[in-house]
Each structure stands twice: as structure tokens, then as C-alpha cells.
Amino acid sequence: MKFPELFDGELLPLAEAFYTIQGEGFHSGKPAFFIRLGGCDVGCSWCDAKETWNPALYEPTPIEHIVSEAMRYPSRSIVITGGEPLTYPLDKLCNLLKINNFDIFLETSGSKSMSGRFDWICLSPKKKKPPLKGMHQLASELKVIIETTEDFQWAEKNRVLVRKDCMLFLQPEWSRSKTILPIIIDYVKMNPSWNISLQIHKYMNIP
């Protein structure tokens, strides 16, 4: 089946949209409306949103409907995530959100070209499909998932590519957090340019 026409981003394959507390990275604890788009070709084994990988499972949704839903809630913070949200042109969605005075935060692996305009970009690079050239310099925040001790080398490889004012976070892979978190703690104590990100939404048992 051919995937439906998205009309240059007027429609987007919306996997889910919900109001919650941001659970990761620099904006942890902030109330925000999440826009999760379907479609990702990176395919991390530990991904906690594998159901989003196939975009054909999700009805293309008019961006006006997405923004209208976001406006029902008091926070004016938006998180656009996936899947890999940069799979799609996001200029029209971002422009409509900005007209309605939203701050827009992007969560991306950096594996696709940039579109849209954002107040904060969280780059979470993946070894299987590294960020495109130039994506590191756009990052407000670098968030590297640590599953094994080998991932520290990957984190450092990406650290040298971001701007000096980019915030740096190491985040334990959830299923191995009891094992890997003590190692991350020791690493950050010895390498204080890094911070630790925890998935606090999972501790709070919220989306």
C-alpha cells in the first residue's frame, strides 16, 4: 500500500498526542504537550516506542487538528518526537504552533535533514544511523543513551561535534538501568561536563 500524500506537511502520521510531564533531559519536570509522529528507520533494539516505526499504521492527521488539541491544555510547551519526526517536513506544523505562541522542543536522532523551527533541539544520536553532517551544531542538548560501557566512547565522539554551550546528558537504557547507572554516576563524577538524565516519567508511572 502506498503511503498517503502528506501535502508537504499539512498532514502528518500522528501516532499519539498527549499532555504530560517531560521525563528526560534538560526539560525534565516541565509540563508539555507531546506530538509523537509515526515512522522511524533507525530501529534501536531498546526503543520504548517500537509501535511507531511503521508510519502506514497511522492516519495522516491535519496539523490544524493537532494544534487545536494542544491548545486545550494550559502549558505552551510542545515536544515533537517519534519515531523520527524529521522524516517529515515540519515547517507548516511549527509555523502554526508559533502563531499560537508555543515553545517547541524537538527530539531527534539527527538522521534526517532539518525542517521546522524550534526553541530547543535535543539530539540523541544513534550508532546504527548517525546524525547527518551539521546536525550536531544545531543541538541545544546532546542526550546519549548508555546501554554498555562501550557507549561512553560513542558519547565522547559526539560531544566534540556539538557547540560549547550545548548541554550534555548521559541516560541509562531503562532495562539495564540498575546495572549501568552506577557506572554512569562514576563516569560523570570523573567527567563533569556531562550530566545524568533519568526517565523520571517511568518512575512516576505516567506517559
Q: What is the CATH architecture term?
A: Alpha-Beta Barrel
Number of strands: 9
Strand order of the largest sheet: 3-1-2-4-5-6-7-8-9
Element order: H for helix, E for strand:
EEEHEHEEEHEHEH
Low-pLDDT runs of 5+ residues are: none
Number of domains: 1
How helix-rich are the residues, as a percent range? 10-25%
In CATH, the homologous superfamily goes by the name Aldolase class I
Shape: globular
Integer-rounded radius of gyration: 17 Å
Biggest sheet overview:
9 strands, mixed
The class by helix and strand makeup works out as alpha/beta
> Remind me, CATH topology?
TIM Barrel
Which structural traits does this protein have?
single chain, 9 strands, alpha/beta, TIM Barrel, 207 residues
Describe this structure in words.
With 207 residues, the chain is of the alpha/beta class. It has one domain: Aldolase class I (TIM Barrel). Helix content is 22%, strand content 24%. The chain is built from five helices and nine strands, in the order E-E-E-H-E-H-E-E-E-H-E-H-E-H. The protein has a nine-stranded mixed β-sheet. Helix 3 links the parallel strand 7 and strand 8. The longest helix has 14 residues. It is globular. The mean pLDDT is 95.
Topology:
Layout: E1 11-21, E2 31-37, E3 60-62, H1 63-70, E4 77-81, H2 91-99, E5 103-108, E6 120-123, E7 141-146, H3 151-159, E8 167-172, H4 177-190, E9 195-196, H5 200-204
Parallel strand pairs: 2-4, 4-5, 5-6, 6-7, 7-8, 8-9
Antiparallel strand pairs: 1-2, 1-3
